[in-house]
Write a structure and sequence with these properties.
Blueprint lengths: L1 H26 L4 H5 L27 H12 L15 H13 L10 H7 L3 E3 L6 E3 L6 E6 L6 E3 L2 E2 L12
Antiparallel strand pairs: 1-2, 2-3, 3-4, 4-5
Length: 172
C-alpha cells in the first residue's frame, strides 16, 4: 500500500514538472527575437512579427526595431516622415502607437509587444515586382524589406533590423 501511494506522488510530481516545463516552452517565444538581437521571421510572412517586442519608452527604445515600427506608423499615417523616423521610442511614437492600437482594436497601452507587432504583420505581403517584402499601409506602402535567406533576419534600408543598433538607412 505504501509503495502505491509513493508511486502516485512520483507520477504527480513528474506530471507537475512536465506541465511547468511545457508552460515555459510555450511562453518563451514571446521574446525569442529580442534575445536573438534582431527582428527574425520564418515561413509565412504574415506571422513573422508575432514574437517581436517589446518596444516602449522604457525598454528597447532606441534601435532599428523602433525604426521599423516608426515606418509602419508612417505608412499608416500616424507619424510624419523625416525627423519623426529617428529610431527613438519617445512621446510622439508612444502617442502614435496608442492611436494605432486603438484603431486596430488592441489594448491601447503604447507598448509594442507581440499583439501589436502580430497585428501589423497581417499587412505584410510579397512584392510581385522584385520578390521583396512590403507593408500595406493605409496611406502608403513600405517597399524593399526582405528576410535574410540564411538567418531569417529582416533587412530595412540596407540594415538588419536590430534591437541593439541604429542605422542611417532607417533612422533620420
Amino acid at each position: 500500500m505504501g509503495m502505491l501511494v509513493l508511486n502516485s506522488f512520483v507520477r504527480t510530481g513528474v506530471a507537475a514538472v512536465v506541465a511547468t516545463l511545457a508552460m515555459v516552452a510555450v511562453a518563451s517565444p514571446a521574446s525569442a527575437s529580442v534575445s536573438q538581437g534582431y527582428v527574425v521571421g520564418a515561413g509565412a510572412i504574415n506571422n513573422d512579427f508575432g514574437d517581436e517586442g517589446p518596444l516602449s519608452t522604457g525598454v528597447n527604445n532606441h534601435n532599428l526595431a523602433v525604426g521599423l515600427w516608426q515606418h509602419i506608423l508612417w505608412a499608416d499615417g500616424y507619424l510624419g516622415g523625416g525627423s519623426q523616423l529617428d529610431c527613438q521610442f519617445g512621446p510622439q511614437t508612444r502617442s502614435a502607437t496608442i492611436a494605432w492600437q486603438r484603431d486596430h482594436g488592441l489594448a491601447a497601452d503604447g507598448i509594442v509587444g507581440s499583439g501589436t507587432f502580430g497585428k501589423a504583420d497581417n499587412y505584410l505581403y510579397r512584392d510581385d515586382y522584385d520578390g521583396t517584402i512590403a507593408y500595406d499601409g493605409s496611406v502608403r506602402d513600405i517597399y524593399g524589406m526582405y528576410r535574410s535567406t540564411n538567418s531569417g533576419r529582416y533587412v530595412l534600408g540596407g540594415h538588419h533590423v536590430s534591437y541593439t543598433a541604429t542605422g542611417a538607412g532607417v533612422c533620420q
